[in-house]
Specification:
It holds the Pfam family DUF3632. About 55% of the residues lie in helices and about 0% in strands. It has about 325 residues and is an all-alpha fold. The termini are far apart.
Length: about 325
């Protein structure tokens, strides 16, 4: 992979904030770099306050703005995606202190309680999501499906440039990897939206090329966890709702809401259909085909597991 672009507008930021990008870049491209040291350095930027003025540290949204900006340029199968997952995990594991950003914000009202909650992660994600190649699908989403709202305050750093389908897929690959590797809450909601958008809507070939790879990467990198986590979210069964929740039905799907075996099977069938749609780009068809194969393999694995349990129970009699 070639080095990612550094076309970030960091003018007007503090020297500490200006060091975020080179710190992340060094971490990604220096084989000797330590994830724990990089995490502690970044953590300290956002958790050192001026005791004389009682001025709060910088808002952590700047960190996620640059992290997402980097990730959108890193291909799904590049090991640097995993490196960033490790880095985020290290940040989450740093013990909280009374002077950290999250604790100071908590003293003024409900907020994140520690960096384990990755403050501002979702608000910045929603800023990026505004630039996703979703077309009219974006307007149909229920803005109240999570407690997070776009903050619209950091786009001056990266310019608010519309995302390509490849960049959208790269970002979702990171979320899927992070979901698979950690217990960070609500990530599966973004996966549900990605799968619903790509598999339960009537799409033009262009929109399918932009959205199907992102959905396929959720299966590739977090398929087992999604499959095992079958749950219905509150409010997902309102058929008359104008806005969609992450687990409400798309127009092509007539089964139960939420995660369930029937919906999983429907997605698998849709991936197979898309893998044979001649109007799609070859890469899109291949991604859809691999996703269908992975889902089938997960299904067969579950069948084998059940058979082994039955056999073991029989032998114990």
């Amino acid at each position: 992979m070639t080095a990612v672009s550094s076309k970030l507008n960091l003018s007007g930021t503090t020297p500490a904030l200006a060091n975020i990008y080179p710190t992340l870049s060094d971490y990604l491209y220096d084989p000797s770099s330590s994830p724990s040291k990089a995490a502690k350095y970044l953590y300290d930027i956002f958790n050192s306050n001026n005791e004389k003025t009682e001025e709060n540290p910088p808002a952590p949204g700047y960190l996620w703005e640059i992290v997402f900006w980097l990730i959108k340029q890193i291909p799904a199968n590049d090991h640097r995606q995993d490196q960033l997952v490790v880095l985020v995990s290290e940040i989450r594991n740093i013990p909280s202190s009374s002077n950290n950003y999250a604790s100071r914000r908590d003293s003024k009202g409900p907020c994140h309680t520690s960096w384990a909650d990755l403050p501002s992660f979702y608000t910045v994600w929603l800023d990026f999501e505004r630039e996703a190649p979703l077309g009219s699908l974006r307007a149909s989403r229920d803005p109240h499906t999570t407690s997070h709202e776009p903050q619209n305050s950091t786009a001056e750093i990266w310019g608010g440039v519309p995302l390509t389908g490849i960049e959208w897929a790269n970002l979702h690959t990171f979320l899927a990897r992070l979901h698979s590797a950690t217990d960070f809450r609500d990530l599966e909601l973004r996966g549900m939206f990605a799968l619903l958008d790509a598999l339960e809507e009537e799409l033009t070939p262009q929109l399918a090329d932009d959205l199907v790879p992102a959905a396929a990467h959720w299966i590739a990198y977090a398929g087992k966890k999604l499959r095992d986590h079958q749950i219905v979210y509150p409010g997902s069964e309102r058929d008359d709702q104008i806005k969609r929740s992450p687990s409400s039905r798309g127009p092509l799907y007539a089964g139960p809401h939420g995660f369930c075996g029937e919906r999983w099977t429907f997605w698998k069938t849709r991936f197979r259909i898309l893998s044979e749609w001649g109007d799609l780009e070859e890469g899109t068809r291949e991604a859809a085909g691999r996703a269908a194969e992975e889902m089938e393999a997960l299904d067969q694995g579950q069948v084998r597991l059940r058979l082994e349990k039955v056999r073991s129970a029989f032998l114990l009699r």
